[in-house]
């Protein structure tokens, strides 16, 4: 019954847990900072006491050193109290970090009965339909997605509730896939329609929508397979002639695009391995001579490889090109 939406609530709870862990770390860092500051204050206070006692050799600078090192006892007491409060607060936060999540939204769903959940889902369906009619496909998909979350916490008990549950869930999945197809979110389209097809392999609309998503991703074989399967379910039904015509048109379109795709790949492959120039009209006569000379070169023999002599084919034409570039004439 899972449709991939249970992870949304898990992500929300995980985000809350991460936030509390972050606050715990920040509190501990603040405690360490206050303790370090308090320790420094105590050291300076001890230094001031030592300077006050050691007056055997008079030095007029000792007076300033004494007051520089002097610390207010009240300030030290305030720092000690602040550090203690921070430490206690961090300890309490750590004790409750994993057990004080806000489960109010999840608890509200669990407290609702199946009929109430179905009513809420249908309201989301109506809102999604309204957004879809206005061309707001992203908002429509959001409403359908919210409805699908309810099904993760829905446990029908009677046959009537089970029938209503399955029918409404299928509608939400198909509607959501339709929105994602408009938004070109093909992975979401395939994910939603596949759930419908796994539950009902004869669902023509889900097969049609998934076939269009496959075609848009250039997965033509999968698209053709879905379309032929859908056509097989409606070709013998006179009441669905218009649907069969729509499926046949999509099938012909997919086959045409597949043929064009194969021809394009063939042309690209031929161009990559072709020995001919791509733009012969832009090449000079000298370059043509060099091209012809190169094409006339035979395969190297064992004798030519054994002599280690450089190959001089095309050198005359190459020299003519270099001389023209340098502005010299022979």
Automatic annotation (TrEMBL):
Signal peptide residues on this chain, from the entry's feature table: none
SMART domains per the UniProt record, alphabetical: TPR (SM00028)
Cross-referenced InterPro entries: AIP/AIPL1/TTC9 (IPR039663), TPR-like_helical_dom_sf (IPR011990), TPR_rpt (IPR019734)
Keywords: Repeat, TPR repeat
PANTHER family: ARYL HYDROCARBON RECEPTOR INTERACTING PROTEIN RELATED, TPR_REGION DOMAIN-CONTAINING PROTEIN
Protein name according to UniProt: Uncharacterized protein AlNc14C8G1053
Species: Albugo laibachii Nc14
